[in-house]
Design goal:
With 482 residues, this protein is α/β, with parallel strands linked by helices. It is built from 18 helices and eleven strands. The protein is globular, with a radius of gyration of 23 Å.
Amino acid sequence: MITPFDYFEHRRVCKQKQLERSNRIANLSPEYHGPVSSSERQILDKPIEQLVKDVHKQAVKPIDILRSYGKLAIKAHAKTNCLTEVMINPGAEKWIENINLKGPLAGIPVSLKDTIIVGGFDTSVGYSRYTGKPYPQDGTMVRILKDAGAVPYVKTNCPITLLSFESANDVWGRTTNPHNTNYSPGGSTGGESALLAYGGGRIGVGSDVAGSVRVPAHFAGIYSLRCSTGRWPKMGMKTSMPGQEGIPSVFSPMARTLPDLVYFTKSMIGMKPWEYDHSVHPIPWRTDLYDSTKDQKRLRIGVMETDGVVPPSPACARALSTVTTALSSSGHTIIPITPPSPSTALLIASSLLSADGCLTFLAPFRTFERNDPGASLLSLFASLPFPFRYIHYLWTKYIRKDPFWAELSYGIRERTVREQWELVAQREAYKASWHQWWQDQENEDRKKLDVILTVPNATPAVPHGGMRDALASCGYTFLFNL
């Protein structure tokens, strides 16, 4: 539809999708409404490994697990607005009739970030332009999950553009933190963190390009693992920036508890995802390595207290101090570290991520479709003509006395192919410097660091709209995507 008349279409489809979601919830059978029963509470309190064993032994029915978590997911949504596509009926109740009852995830409901493709449902990524276009078949991730016996039952909210630690868009609305609804549950996988933190699920799948599974876990108090590139499948998804490989995005597990996170990760890798997806490295779960690391009594732990850009807030600094004190008391060696400049990493990574001038994630927007405040700031910088961008750079550096922000904002702009290659060369040189630094950390016994510990983000959960002022706080996670 021609601009600006597509605004009316935008308003129409947003109302339509929210009504569709409300009707799907209202039309669920009575088993998904009302208080949680004692038998349902027994299911909800069990770790997924035990639930799988119960399904294998036919001690519990998958439909009862689905209804228990489906009921709590609906309650979580009522409080936090965390769900997008409710796939219980139609969907999960039919799929469950043909699941693999001997699979490693037999009968376990799995929630999915809205970006993951499920046959028969939209994958809007928060853009109204992508609604009303259900995919004809499941994407790779969903095929693996179903083959493992899992039951996808809901999709969860994310920010439009996927470039925020908040989760809001016009199509689905704003998701809130279940601990305090005045605050964000994180982003871009914030719907997942809100659902899992409330108890409406035990395991879910998100994606991460700058902290999008780690920061939601931090904001909402759950667990996540940012997988290494090539460890988990990445095909069968929709994104706001297709083709962006300067900073690779990875899909990764999220869970309510640490044992569930370990079991889920192990189960997915045990499904040999490289046989489904060419991008996955053929590396099995290495039990011997896992067990030897888990049983190691004394670790050499490097602690990075700040990224040199945004110092951790008092709450986050206190949490890091509490952890390091506990680890030291348990006999582990704590080593303050100063790795290759994290601020340099943030400059390179932000320039790579915005090398198209933010045009790709802006392309699907309709007239007056609201953007995330942080992403809006990125696109504003990218759109400034050179004279204005340079004036802003000088004003920020010399008047505001903030040379780092001046450099960061100046670097957010459209690049030529040659400039893009130069940034990739800088990225590789930076990674090489980290590799050399790591090799240099040997002690007198030739033992290197076992792990690096730092805060997940410079701030705890931000109030709604806070990302406009917290854009540079992502350095603690963005660093490890670079």
